[in-house]
Amino acid sequence: MQGKNVVIIGASSGVGYSTAEILGAEGANLFTISRNEPDFPPSLQFEHFSHDILEEDFPAEALPEKIDALIYCPGSINLKPLRSLSAQMFREDYELNVIGAVKAIKAALKALKKADGTPSIVLFSTVAVQQGMAFHGSVAAAKGAIEGLTRSLAAELSPRIRVNCIAPSLVNTPLASHILSSEERVTASNNRHPLKRIGEAKDIAQTAVFLASEQSSWITGQVIGVDGGLSRLR
Ligand SMILES: NC(=O)c1ccc[n+]([C@@H]2O[C@H](COP(=O)([O-])OP(=O)(O)OC[C@H]3O[C@@H](n4cnc5c(N)ncnc54)[C@H](OP(=O)(O)O)[C@@H]3O)[C@@H](O)[C@H]2O)c1
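Above: the input record for the complex with NAP. Below: its predicted structure, written as tokens.
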């Protein structure tokens, strides 16, 4: 990724942070956007623009002239029975997961088209779209929309720009800390996975880097499960 311009929305924690660490070590030029500035080690060079993606307008000035990869990380895990999920909560999850990504992609399209090769957009879904999981109604609905968006935009933007999506199972990041709040919960979560462990941010980040790079130049419109086998194995 030496010299490639990569925009990461949400590199201040979790998967986005780990993705930035790998890309930075590979020599990519990093442009990060989130509310908080990432606390990277001093060796990692990056340009940060502080912005809340829930604001109406996306800050076009945060983007470079040419973009080789755009990675949209913000997401939610709002697990509740349907009786406790208001229509407003569904709207908020949709706004962050889907509309935020749409705003970022629309703002970046011109710069993506200026890049050589097959520039890449990487989005995030969840294992809970493929496998029905109780209490996941709101997040599964929003991420299901991301999977539809992935395939539709991949068709629309082909052959110029690739669009793919990663569907993780439970990953040890700040977003999942409320689910992993005790040793018993971590053990139970590990045991639910065929590979007998939950994910680490790096497990997902390595796939994001692959999808962002030319190594995946013949892959578009895919939803890739990175989930310890949970979505496919009994
Ligand atoms: N962790 C899991 O178990 C899991 C499972 C399935 C799917 N996923 C999906 O994987 C993706 C990455 O998750 P993660 O666990 O790495 O999440 P995370 O640790 O919460 O990181 C999310 C990043 O997005 C940024 N962000 C959140 N809200 C934002 C806003 N309103 N405006 C701008 N930036 C915002 C955060 O930065 P600031 O707070 O600084 O703004 C942060 O850098 C998400 O789409 C998530 O839904 C995660």
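Notes for the reader.
Residues 180 and 202 are 17 Å apart (CA to CA).
The first helix runs from residue 14 to 25.
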